[in-house]
Amino acid sequence: MRKITTPEALFSVLSSRFEEEGFLTLKDLPSPFAFADMQKAAERIADAIRHRERIVVIGDYDVDGVTATTILKRFFDAIEYKIAWLIPNRFEDGYGISVSVLDKIGPCDLIVTVDNGIAALDAAEVCKARGIDLIVTDHHLLPPRLPDAYAIVDPKRNDCTFPYDEICGAQIAWYLVAALKQTIQASIDLKSLLPFTAIAIVADMMPLKHINRAMTIAGLQVMAKSDLPAFRAYKEFVRKEFFDAEDIGFSLAPLLNSAGRMEDASYAVAFLDAPNIYEARSTLQRLIAFNERRKEIEAEMTRAATESLNENDAVTVVKGKGWHEGVMGIVAARLSRDTKKPCIVLCEEGNGMLKGSGRSYGECDLFSLVDPLRAHLDKFGGHAAAIGIRLEAARLEAFKEALNRAFEAGAYRTVPTQKEIVGALDFAVIDGALMSVIKRFEPYGVGNRKPLFFTSDVIVRDMRPIGKEGAHLRFVLEHDGIIFPAVRFKSDERYEIGSIVDIVYSVAENTFRWETSLQLMIEEMRLHDLSNGEIVCRT
Hints:
Blueprint: E1 3-4, H1 7-15, H2 38-50, E2 55-58, H3 63-78, E3 84-86, H4 99-105, E4 110-114, H5 121-129, E5 133-137, E6 151-153, H6 169-184, H7 194-203, H8 210-225, H9 229-238, H10 245-262, H11 266-272, H12 277-307, E7 316-320, H13 328-339, E8 343-348, E9 353-359, H14 366-370, E10 379-382, E11 386-392, H15 396-410, E12 421-425, H16 432-440, E13 452-466, E14 472-479, E15 482-488, E16 500-512, E17 515-527
Parallel strand pairs: 1-12, 2-3, 2-4, 4-5, 5-6, 7-8, 12-13, 15-17
Antiparallel strand pairs: 8-9, 9-11, 10-11, 13-14, 13-16, 14-15, 16-17
């Protein structure tokens, strides 16, 4: 393992992550017309505007779909053109544009999907029969057959010349607005919409490299200065003025997601697009209530799912009756972290069918793993990290057997190794200069993980439980005479005072009563192994 002895050494390690793309800025963003069908889509929407046609935007109930819908809604509001918009209800309509959703929206001339539609074969046929032009904007992987739509904007298309395919639905919606701005010569501030793309990039776990990094940085900067009622209300709630990717991923995104998980995602759009601070505050309180309810249900479902685990399965598959559909994805993610395996959580629909969500783990591409097994499934979609499936209960065992065989044949590495640790670090090197280097490479997330360090022979000088029901631990740790405070979240482990441990951790700033200090965020801790002094990072 390399030794990090100076801030300059860390800079060299972290900068190597960006050797291919470099540090892109907004000036480096490709043209919107690099997308296949983007010009066709923009011209059709412009024609609809000129002829005062009825336009309907159909989104999705996750953060990406909510922010993408908000981007298009705010664009049409800005040009004072009235449109209709709808986010399908998870419980009544299911995912994305469908025949039942088309019946809901009534007669229209043009439908634009955001963050969905790439697999909507039936809905596309109905649109064609009813004389509705359908424009699909999506970022999900392509199914074997594409819908018969007027235009399809998806970076995964083989004929798409847009140079980046790992982008989210809200980014494509932003690019559609950029194309429309040029096509109809609209006076639109594209920068004002970047906070919505930043939220979606982080929430949808896009790699924080290339234009994703540039758009996230710019979006967070605009968000900090924005007077938008939603952002003002959120700043009041968290008592912060500036945000990083972790604030989005662990705080704002769950709030926005909770609306679609618990009741209806339209509440999230209503919050983001609130016309004044009073409505923003009121809607935010509703989201907070949704999220608290979600946490309670998630904890109960996780306990029940854990009891039914089969430790011999290479891929964890659990099912239950009466489980809350809106929380299955979160429970799958939690189980995948706990079991260190990909996980699929299913619930009984009551008609001989099972429906659920899956989350990957390690280097396993869950979509590619399940894709060849479509014959077992009634519905299937998603991407490398997350999938949604529906199948007959009678086919479950055959599907599980085929899934485990496919996983074993793939020989996936599921346990992260020390390659994820950037280097060994002495406490003596941890200072403001090192922290400046760490902050230089923000935002951190998928594709640009916050740097993890390894330190051996650390003495536990103090340890105490903190938080609700003592779910977290606060430490005082010493190494070579230097002391740092440290925190480990969601751990029931206990260590005696004076224990010698090895730790894997990140370095963070902690601001309390206007004073900022450094603390260690523990990812892994175990008693020092005198035989080799090594540990494996299980993150």
